[in-house]
Amino acid sequence: MSAWVVPVLLCGGSGTRLWPLSRPDRPKQVLSLTTERTLFAETLHRLDGFALGTTIAITGAATADLVAAELPPDARMMIEPEGRGTAAAIALAALEVVADDPVLVVLPTDHHVADPVAWRAALDVAIHAASQDEVVLLGVKPTRPETGYGWIHAPQGTTPALPIVRFVEKPPLAVAQGLLDEGGWWWNAGVFVVRAKVALALLELHAPDVLDAARLAHAEIVRDGSLRLGDRFRAIPNIPFDRAVMERTTAARCVPVDAGWTDLGSFDALWQTTAHDPSDNATRGDVLLHDAHGCYVHATHRRVVVVGAQDLVVIETADEILVVPRARAQEVRDAVARLGDPKCR
User: Fold this and answer.
1) Reduced to 3 states, what is the DSSP secondary structure of residue 334?
2) Residue 124, by phi and psi: left (phi above 0), alpha (psi -120 to 50) or beta?
3) Cβ neighbours around 47 below 10 Å, total
4) Which pLDDT does position 341 carry in this prediction?
5) pLDDT of the residue at 3
6) Which structural domains are found in the chain, ordered by start?
7) Residue pair 214/242 in contact by the 8 Å Cβ criterion
8) Whose CB among 91, 108, 228, 232 lies 3.0–4.6 Å from 214's, allowing a Cys bridge?
9) Torsion sign, CA atoms 251, 252, 256, 260
10) 129 within 8 A of 136, measured Cβ to Cβ
11) Digit-coded pLDDT (tens) for 22-51
C-alpha cells in the first residue's frame, strides 16, 4: 500500500429511495443504517491502512454542514451549486490536486461492504494498477441477474486488473440472466481509481467539453474554508465518468471483488444487509413483532408494533410513516414524488 492516495468522497442524492429516513437535506450517507457509524464514516473507515493524502468530499450546500462534521480536520469540502455526474466530480478533484499527481480513489459514500478486508485487498490492487497509468473500476462478483446495476465485461485473465471489454447499463432481466450465466461479468460498483494527471489526460482526449468547462469552474472556486463552486459549474456536461471516459479508452481495467457489497438502493437492500431474527425479520429501534415474517421495521421516535405481517417494510420517523411491501420498495421514490413537498423530493 505504498501509493499516495487521495480519497474523493461523493455525497449527494435526492433522498427519495430511503424516504422518510433520508431527505434531500439529510441523505442516507449521513445516516447510521448498517452500524453505529454513518455510511459516510464507514466509507472512510474502509480506507484504514492506506497512505492517504488530503481527503476531498464533494457535496451540495444543503448537506455541507452534515458532511463537514464527518470529515478529518485537514479535509477539503467541495460544494456544488447543483448535482452533476461523476465526470465533473473527477475532473474537479483532479484539477485540485494535479500538481502532486496522487492516485484518486473516487468513492460513493452510501454503500455497504460486509467484508472490508477483501474490499481493501481489491482496492490495493486497483491502486497499484492506477499507479501504472491505468484507470480502474472495482467490479463486484454478481450473485443474481440484477437489473438495477451497470455490468462490466472483463473476462478472467492473467493479470489482477482485467481489461474491460464492454459495459451494459441496467439490462432487462433476460439480458442480466444471460450475463450471469456467461460469466466474466461484474457489477459496476462506481468506484474509480486513477492518477490525477491520467484522469485529466483521458478527459482531454475523450471528453474535452467536460474538461474545458471544469477548468473554468475550478478557476472561480471561492476558498472560504470550503471550496465553493460558482455558476460556471452548471456549464459542465452532466455525464458519468463511465460514459465520458471508461467506455472509450483502452486503458480501462476492472479489479473483481467479492466482499458482500450493496449500494443500499432500497429498503429491501437494507433488509438484506441487517441481521435477521429466526423469522427473517430485520429491525432497528424500539420494535415489537408478533407473528411477523420477512419484515424490515425501523423505528426512530416511537415504539412500532407489527402483527401478522409478511415481507413488509415499516418506517417510522418523527413526522412520517411509510408502509410498503418489500418487493415494491423501489416504488417509494415514485410515491414521494406525489407528495408535493419540495423537502421530500
Assistant:
1) helix
2) alpha
3) 18
4) 55
5) 61
6) 5-262 (3.90.550.10), 267-344 (no CATH)
7) no
8) 91
9) positive
10) yes
11) 988 888 998 999 888 999 999 999 999 888
